[in-house]
């Protein structure tokens, strides 16, 4: 009777914990994207957190009902999660997740609370990682050769599902070209609520691994860009390769930009210019703006590309502000039933873009784009529109009257065409 009572309590606790884990896993699967807007973690971390509850629930419910090796397997998976999640917090998390000053001790020792928090999680991750490694090693050592073969096959299957099958683009039975794919992906984002997420992280972070619409969108866009033809009568400026990548620090050194293509911006009287170069798998741009001498106000270097690539992708554009912050946006269109297509701006679509700005007498900007992430193929022409905006024009009462143009090359309607030199 006593054993039945204990088993009953285990079942009750197991069901409760399993339901909590299932709820977190359901949230991580993307059933309510708007709830993820303030998330500081990528989707896989949320899924792993759900598994932290689901696995103990399964262990409680499987006691006395499953072989001992099943319990050990679930326990080893749990130990692994206790190592993986702190490791992400220590090395991959957002430092803004640690708030506070650390109190008097931090003040006395001169330590940063965020760094202390990361150090604590790093130590915990290393300890739990060693514990998990020992547990897995001991468990595998007790398995027979047949069990080890099954475990290896299961590991390969899990890796294939995680790395190959789940990120793969959908296969639609009807004939769908990449323009149609862009339209369908954009509509999926709108219908499922992902478009309303305004988080700080790149868009890819918010999708579950088996529904990474952002990755599929970039793949379709890159295929279209790779076969884009130079318009008749239009010449493409060659972006040369330089030997060493320039430092993205806002200081445009002559030596590090030696050999770069120099593009003068209009109006020429302002003296603004942009240098463009390729190195490795990145595209580098540096904007020199002699007419901008103010430390405050509005300053922005904008690079527009993929202009008019598809009826469903109007452009992508990278923005570098006076603080050096960089963001990349996409102008998306999507079908809306029998109504005219709708437009939307997708923010935070790049993870690898880097920017910087400095003011040493006058304003300078630097920008680096990953060629693969940007869908720019060496040897293939692509349109580019460069513009720099400075502080707005204001009247005597400091009221905004007009935007100020400190330089531009090309335009949205008539962009310049460039071609990055092949490797």
Observed structural traits:
five-stranded antiparallel beta sheet, 2 domains, 9 helices, 13 strands, alpha+beta, 423 residues, eight-stranded mixed beta sheet, Immunoglobulin-like
Describe the structure.
The chain is α+β, with helices and mostly antiparallel strands. It has two domains: 2-165, no CATH class; 237-420, Immunoglobulin-like (Sandwich), CATH 2.60.40.1190. Helix content is 38%, strand content 23%. It contains nine helices and 13 strands. The chain has helices at 2-28, 43-62, 68-91, 103-109, 113-142, 145-165, 178-191, 213-226, 371-374; strands spanning 237-239, 261-264, 273-279, 282-289, 300-305, 313-321, 326-336, 339-346, 354-359, 363-370, 382-394, 400-409, 416-420. The strands form two sheets. Strands 1, 5, 6, 7, 8, 11, 12 and 13 form an eight-stranded mixed beta sheet that branches. Strands 2-3-4-10-9 form a five-stranded antiparallel beta sheet. Strand 3 (273-279) and strand 4 form a beta hairpin. Helix 2 (43-62) packs antiparallel against helix 3, helix 3 packs antiparallel against helix 5 and helix 7 runs antiparallel to helix 8. The longest helix has 30 residues, at 113-142. The chain is elongated. The mean pLDDT is 89.
């Amino acid at each position: 009777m006593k054993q039945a009572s204990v088993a009953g309590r285990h079942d009750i606790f197991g069901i409760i914990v399993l339901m909590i884990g299932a709820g977190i896993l359901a949230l991580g699967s993307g059933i309510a994207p708007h709830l993820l807007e303030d998330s500081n973690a990528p989707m896989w971390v949320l899924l792993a957190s759900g598994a932290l509850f689901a696995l103990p629930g399964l262990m409680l419910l499987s006691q006395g009902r499953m072989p001992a090796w099943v319990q050990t397997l679930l326990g080893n998976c749990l130990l692994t999660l206790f190592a993986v999640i702190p490791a992400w917090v220590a090395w991959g998390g957002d430092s803004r997740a640690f708030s506070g000053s650390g109190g008097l001790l931090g003040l006395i020792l001169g330590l940063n609370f965020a760094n202390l928090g990361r150090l604590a999680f790093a130590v915990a991750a290393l300890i739990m990682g060693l514990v998990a490694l020992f547990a897995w090693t001991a468990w595998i050592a007790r398995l027979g050769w047949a069990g080890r073969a099954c475990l290896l096959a299961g590991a390969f299957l899990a890796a294939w599902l995680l790395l190959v099958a789940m990120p793969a683009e959908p296969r639609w039975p009807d004939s769908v070209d990449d323009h149609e794919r862009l339209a369908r992906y954009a509509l999926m984002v709108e219908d499922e609520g992902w478009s309303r997420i305004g988080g700080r992280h790149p868009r890819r972070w918010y999708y579950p691994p088996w529904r990474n619409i952002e990755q599929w969108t970039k793949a379709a866009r890159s295929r279209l860009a790779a076969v884009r033809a130079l318009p008749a009568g239009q010449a493409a400026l060659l972006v040369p390769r330089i030997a060493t990548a320039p430092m993205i620090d806002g200081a445009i050194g002559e030596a590090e930009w030696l050999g770069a293509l120099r593009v003068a911006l209009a109006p020429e009287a302002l003296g603004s210019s942009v240098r463009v170069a390729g190195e490795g798998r990145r595209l580098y741009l540096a904007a020199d703006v002699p007419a901008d001498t103010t430390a405050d106000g509005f300053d922005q270097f904008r690079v527009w590309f993929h202009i008019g690539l598809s009826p469903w992708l109007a452009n992508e554009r990278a923005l570098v502000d006076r603080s050096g912050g960089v963001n990349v946006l996409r102008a998306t269109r999507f079908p809306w039933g029998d109504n005219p297509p709708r437009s939307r701006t997708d923010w935070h679509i790049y993870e690898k873009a880097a920017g910087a700005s400095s003011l040493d007498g006058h304003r300078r900007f630097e920008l680096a784009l990953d060629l693969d992430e940007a869908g720019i193929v060496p040897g293939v022409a692509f349109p580019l529109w460069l513009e720099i905006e400075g502080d707005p024009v204001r009247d005597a009462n400091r009221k905004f009257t007009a935007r100020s143009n400190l330089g531009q090359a090309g335009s949205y309607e008539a962009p310049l065409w460039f071609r990055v030199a092949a490797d």
